[in-house]
Amino acid sequence: MMLMPAKVVGEDKVKKQPSFVKPWLGLKYLFKKPVTIKIPDEKIEPAPKYRGFHTLDWKKCIGCNFCGQICPARAIEMTWIEVNGKLEKRPHPKIDYGRCTFCQFCVDVCPTGALGFIESYILTTTGKEEELQLFDWVPLPPDKFKELQDEYGDWRFPIERIEFNKETKEVTYYLRNGETFKFKIVGYGLKPPKPPSKPQQEKKEG
Angle at CA 120, nearest 5°, toward 61 and 163? Predict the structure, then answer.
């Protein structure tokens, strides 16, 4: 069976019916309530189990990178972290919300249930360079995130500001309740970072 190629009709051959009524139909929407809301001043209660921001149980995470492999947007980067001077045994996922589509495939594939999500969904900034760091983070543990969500109840991101010291590699999360959450980023990828090489002592002249 042969398929005939489709023909595209020229616009000049399409008969258009003039209408004097249609241009005025839009006026009815002037008297209806807007569908959109003014974020962050207004909020909508999310549906139960709404796919919002991620949470991460740092103790359960085994650094398998299943989340990074399944992510269709390539929004996850495995990150080696040092807490209180001690290197975590496995890398943890860092999520870029500039790329994330909130499909939550990463949560579904996590073998230990370390990666989860919470209903909070509001993250706004004024566009300043330092504020954009909020969109790229290693998620907070679920208990701390839920504690902040229950305290404020406005479904907003739990962190007001993130500082990254390029020299010391220290990251500081300034939480909404005034607390701070600190750690160091010491490398990326699945392989552990190499320890810093010790400076060689100069040979003494004999």
Answer: 65
